[in-house]
Amino acid sequence: MPAHAARGMRRGLDLASALLVSVALVAPPIAAPAAPAGLVEILAASPEADWRTVDPEDTLYLTLPQGRVVIELAPAFAPGHVANIKRLARAGFYDGLFVVRVQDNYVVQWGDANAARPTGGGRLRLEAEFDRPYGAAESFVPLPDPDIYAPVTGFAGDFPAARDPVSHLTWLTHCYGMVGAGRDNNADSGGGPELYAVIGQAPRQLDRNVTLVGRVIDGMEALSALPRGHGEIGFYQKPEERIPILSLEVAADRPAARRTPFQVLKTDSPTFAAVVQNRRFRRDSWFKVAAGHIDVCNLPLPVRVGPR
Fold first, then answer.
1. Domain regions of the chain by residue span
2. For residue 56, is it left (φ>0), alpha (ψ between -120 and 50) or beta?
3. pLDDT digits (tens, 9 = 90+) for 33-42
4. How many alpha carbons fall within 13 Å on the CB side of residue 42?
5. What are phi and psi of 139, to 5 degrees?
6. Global pTM?
7. Read out DSSP for 33-76?
8. d(Cα 24, Cα 47) in Å, to the nearest integer?
9. Residues of the chain with pLDDT under 70
10. How many helices and strands, by DSSP H and E, does the chain display?
11. Which CATH class name applies to 39-305?
12. I need a surface site. Which of 44, 84, 124, 173 has the fewest CB within 10 A?
């Protein structure tokens, strides 16, 4: 390279270096991207409008020696069963009956296994309510990820649900804590005298085979920690093993001061959309690889106690 060309290149480099230094001295530093909000922060920042107070008319208080279990009913999906269960509860049908089955990683079942107790105007059997048609105006919040059991999953009326765009049917899904009406082989042999709650990995193969009537929103530990039955499919073999039901009440029948005003996060809210993304892309310091995927039963709906 000629000497004059080399001297020109050095002058150019020196000028560029000086320019970069001057820019660095006067330009504001580039801020690091903000850390994504965690679930606690997301819920703490949520507005009151993003929460729904559970209707006490559609709430059951199941009292066991181990504690109280609160169940939110789903009349939009199982109107006949829900009405029948409330009628049975108000007649005192369940009081003094037992938890008769606790199958590990599956279900807890309670009620009148012998179909011998007077129903007080309720019915022992109803036509199955496994699914229902849906209309264009029905609220449904789909999840963005595929599901192996249904064409689409998400939340309908704030309950975990699935739907088929071809048949235009929607149904509730057997996630942890969901409550269903036990039945025999005949699809129409249930009705509410026997109920169960899912206490294990979601048995989605039961979807559209049993009428789901609601879900546990509080006190799940009083069911999931019960002693397991050692009989076939988890039934207690001895009467003394059974867990007595102290009472099962409709919350609306209690004075307001003796109710708990539970609230659930609305699934059509901006806060819930943020929760979905938080659960899909876990960035907590413990996580090293984000799944980038969530299924309907790994997205439990946040519940809190609201103001009285």
1. 39-305
2. alpha
3. 445 678 999 9
4. 19
5. -75, 125
6. 0.87
7. PPPPPPHHHHHHT--GGGEEEPPGGGEEEEEETTEEEEEEE-TT
8. 42
9. 1-36, 137
10. 5, 17
11. mainly beta
12. 44
